[in-house]
Design goal:
The protein is of the alpha+beta class. The protein has 16 helices and eleven strands. The protein has one domain: Orthogonal Bundle (Cytochrome p450), CATH 1.10.630. A four-stranded mixed beta sheet has the order 1-2-7-4, with helices on one face. Strands 3-11-8 form a three-stranded antiparallel beta sheet. It starts with 29 loop residues before the first helix and ends with a strand. The structure holds protoporphyrin IX containing FE. This is Cytochrome P450 71B38.
Length: 481
């Protein structure tokens, strides 16, 4: 507590050890460790990561105070070494401190993601990639009645193909510098490294321990693979001559090469690569993880799977050749299933950490300036105070309330809230809905021979994202009408 100068009452928390603070009390999966600690110490907890004070907020009311009442005072981000490397010195959106760089990068990305001019082509890309997904799965299903499909690989290559076409203008079915089979590795390795705690961030001189333990070299290896991929994408744009503004990379390259106003904000190479890092990691991971947990829960709950497939097939009618996005509005139960998945498996369970820019009060506790805050949406989604039978997967619970995931309801925050809410929410949710619609309309799904629903592994893994540790492997059968 001496490290956190405060005139008022500080939140409670477990007693730490000298120097390392509470680090020895944390496991590899941070949101689960925080969950256990909050069950004992309450919804606002003070911990020390080495010499750095960290507050964990695990209640709807606390989250609302941080993200709404004090949104402005808490809308910066703490800096860590690995993040600095992957974001080209915080020149991205997700980890940039509050200020001009963040504001400008966010503006450019939002304008691009929601550009009216591109709505039609974005929609075409998503629909075409969904058709390709169905073709790939049909091939597996036709080869053998028992052919196994690793859905983690399928979902990562599906979301990566879409994001890379929307944001980078790269169609990987026509390029050979990225192996779509290995894209999952590239994203998961980068994301996990990015979210791992490093000694350098929490102790003076901790960089030495990181070098000896090999952490430093692991981070640099993962980063160099990603940097090499970005280099190919940028070179490819430069080769084709004047930029056509069809994607974010092209728009930003033009801003770097032809700044318009003398005094205006200068976009640099680092801004471009920082934004590419965000799009690739946040965009691909969020969608793939949501798809994976949804299919996992559906496989564990045959009643829900059956009801959802019946709704989808009744709404779309028989023997459709392809699915277009306008039907998304009509499949109500699908939305409830996704919300229930978000409640139990929020893809970013701690959102991204915030940093206070002034002294504030949360739930009556003093939180001084420059404190790191984590919101544990995993605990909030399982809190019996807000949810009846919280550990059960019951999509119908959302029929009785008006809760949505748009950042206005603090008991369900899969995309965060406030100034730093996810700018890719609409894109992300459309990819997830369209992917699931195709999978569930065209195929019936079963577990590998000899496996029962009780055998499905639910173990979590992860850094910033809640990955599923063991891949989900299922058998697709083309649906016969
Ligand atoms: C289902 C898919 C997705 C989920 C669940 C998700 C979730 C999140 C969450 C929880 C945050 C942190 C918000 C906060 O700190 O309050 C975030 C931030 C962000 N997301 Fe997403 N996301 C998804 C898809 C996407 C997509 C498709 C893109 C871009 C193409 C994207 C780009 C970003 C960026 C740039 C940020 C940082 C925003 C900032 O700090 O200002 N996300 N996302």
């Amino acid at each position: 507590k001496r490290l956190l100068p405060s005139k008022g009452k500080l939140p409670p928390g477990p007693t730490g050890l000298p120097i390392i603070g509470n680090l020895h009390q944390l496991g590899k999966v941070l949101h689960q460790s925080f969950h256990k600690i909050s069950q004992e110490y309450g919804p606002v907890v003070l911990l020390h990561f080495g010499v750095v004070p960290v507050i964990v907020v695990s209640s709807k009311e606390g989250a609302e105070e941080v993200l709404k009442t004090h949104d402005l005072e808490t809308c910066s981000r703490p800096k860590t070494a690995a993040v600095g490397l992957f974001t080209y010195n915080f020149k991205d959106i997700g980890f940039a401190p509050f200020g001009e760089d963040w504001r400008e990068m966010r503006k450019i990305t939002m304008l691009e993601l929601f550009s009216l001019k591109k709505l039609k082509s974005f929609r075409y890309i998503r629909e075409e990639e969904s058709e390709l997904l169905v073709k790939k799965l049909s091939k597996s299903a036709d080869e053998s009645e028992t052919s196994l499909v690793n859905l983690r690989k399928v979902f990562f290559s599906f979301t990566a193909s879409i994001i890379c076409r929307l944001a980078f203008g790269q169609n990987f079915h026509q390029r050979d510098f990225v192996d779509m089979e290995r894209v999952e590795e590239l994203v998961v390795e980068s994301e996990t490294t990015l979210g791992t705690l490093a000694f350098a961030d929490f102790f003076p001189g901790g960089w030495l321990i990181d070098r000896i333990s090999g952490h430093h070299s692991t981070v640099h290896k993962a980063f160099s693979k990603l940097a090499n991929f970005f280099k190919h994408v940028i070179d490819d744009h430069l080769k084709t001559g004047p930029q056509d503004h069809s994607d974010i990379v092209s728009v930003m390259l033009d801003m770097i090469n032809k700044p318009t106003k003398v005094d205006s904000f200068k976009v640099t190479d680092d801004h471009l690569k920082g934004v590419m890092s965000d799009m690739f990691l946040a965009g691909v991971d969020g969608g793939a993880i949501t798809l994976l947990w949804t299919m996992t829960e559906l496989s564990r709950h045959p009643r829900v799977m059956k009801k959802l497939q019946e709704e989808i097939r009744a709404t779309l009618g028989p023997n459709k050749e392809r699915i277009t996005e306008e039907v998304l509005e009509k499949v109500e139960y699908l939305k409830l299933v996704i919300m229930e998945t978000f409640r139990l498996h929020p893809p970013a369970p701690l959102l991204l950490p915030r940093l206070t820019m002034a002294d504030i009060k949360i739930q009556g506790y003093n939180i001084p300036k420059n404190t790191m805050i984590h919101i544990n949406t995993y605990t909030i989604g399982r809190d019996p105070k807000y949810w009846k039978n919280p550990s059960e997967f019951i999509p119908e619970r959302f029929l009785d309330n008006l809760i949505e995931y748009n950042g206005q309801h603090f008991e369900l925050l899969p995309f965060g809230s406030g100034r730093r809410i996810c700018p890719g929410m609409t894109t992300g949710i459309t990819i997830v809905e369209l992917g699931l619609l195709n999978l569930l309309y065209f195929f019936d799904w079963s577990l590998p021979n000899g496996m029962t629903t009780a055998d499905i592994d639910m173990e979590e893994d992860g850094g910033f994202a809640m990955a599923k540790k063991v891949p989900l492997v299922l058998i697709p059968t083309s649906h016969r009408w």
